[in-house]
Automatic annotation (TrEMBL):
One of its GO terms (biological process) is ATP synthesis coupled electron transport. Its EC number is 1.10.3.-. Residues 108-220 form the Cytochrome oxidase subunit II copper A binding domain. Residues 281-298 have a biased composition (Basic and acidic residues). The lineage of its organism: Bacteria, Bacillati, Bacillota, Bacilli, Bacillales. It holds the Pfam family COX2. Catalyzes quinol oxidation with the concomitant reduction of oxygen to water. Subunit II transfers the electrons from a quinol to the binuclear center of the catalytic subunit I. It is found in: Cell membrane. This is Quinol oxidase subunit 2.
Length: 298
């Protein structure tokens, strides 16, 4: 009973994914564990066997070979098996990594949410809806979401364990992370990079709702919430904790200004940043990424 009590996956949110990205990463975790077990379990077994078989006892019949130097067969085994395992793991990792750079589904129009990490709070801006929130984000279920990430100070890491892996937020850079929630629900999110005394409280929630309720929520925020002004943003930038907030609007180009303020004008950003582009622009950018990469390498 004590051992079975630990089998509830809902208590271990990384192992309880609620979206296609999370499922893909869980599959990679399981493959990695199996491949590691292929090495670890035999090594432990051999260790126990050798400790018992060759221990120094009066009745030990093991042959004494003081001049033994090496064995080509054993060398091939204990070097060959790890090489094969690393190669297999590398193939699966590369395949998964490439898959996660694309929208989880192709037949649904994605949305963009801009994310800025502050000390010690998270700001979300919706370029299509022209609204903003602090310490919570609402998304439509079954719709791919491209979280576009930056930082207005200390480097951090954006993480929603049940939806997918983490991605760094860095000053002067715009990073991209595709996530999607399959069903409605509320998911825990947090910063995963130590950023000072308020780090432990730097948490947020992601609420997945139906498309209809998402539109209603956005309209409600637009009608009933105050506007985020330049001065209001400057206040948010100051180190400190903050409760959940909603804003009916925010200064035009705020996300781009945050990126550029920290040196972003000198970077080639491969991710759609929002305010100045439409969703069709984002799709064109995605198609041209490979060509841009080649040009950048030159």
């Amino acid at each position: 009973m004590v051992l079975l009590a630990g089998c509830d996956r809902s208590k271990y949110i990384v192992l309880d994914p609620k979206g296609p990205v999370g499922h893909e990463e869980l599959r990679l975790i399981i493959i990695s564990v199996i491949l590691c077990a292929v090495v670890i379990i035999p090594v432990i077994g051999i260790f126990v066997y050798i400790a018992i078989r060759y221990r120094d006892t009066p009745d030990n019949k093991a042959p004494y070979q003081p001049e033994w130097a090496d064995s080509k067969v054993l060398e091939v085994i204990w070097w060959g098996i790890p090489v094969v395992i690393v190669a297999i793991l590398g193939v699966f990792t590369a395949k998964t990594t490439l898959n996660l750079t694309k929208p989880p589904v192709k037949d649904v129009k994605p949305i963009v949410i801009q994310v800025t990490s502050l000390d010690w709070k998270w700001m979300f801006t919706y370029p299509d809806k022209k609204i903003a929130t602090v310490n919570y984000a609402e998304i439509p279920a079954g719709v791919p979401v491209q979280f576009v990430l930056t930082s207005s100070g200390t480097m951090n890491s954006f993480w929603v364990p049940q939806l997918g892996g983490q991605e760094y937020t860095m000053p002067g850079m715009s990073m991209g992370l595709w996530l999607q929630a399959d069903k409605t629900g509320e998911y825990f999110g947090s910063g995963a990079n130590f950023t000072g005394k308020g780090f432990a409280h730097m948490q947020f929630r992601v609420k997945s709702v139906t498309q209809e309720n998402f539109n209603k929520w956005a309209d409600s925020v637009k009608k009933n919430s105050p506007a985020l002004t330049n001065q209001g943003y400057k206040n948010l930038e100051k180190p400190g904790l903050e409760k959940e907030l909603s804003f009916s609007s925010y200064p035009k180009g705020l996300y781009e200004d945050i990126v550029n303020k920290h040196g972003g004008t000198y970077m080639d950003h491969m991710n759609h940043m929002g305010d100045s582009s439409s969703m069709s622009d984002m799709k064109k950018d995605d198609k041209s990424m490979s060509g841009m990469d080649m040009e950048h390498n030159k």
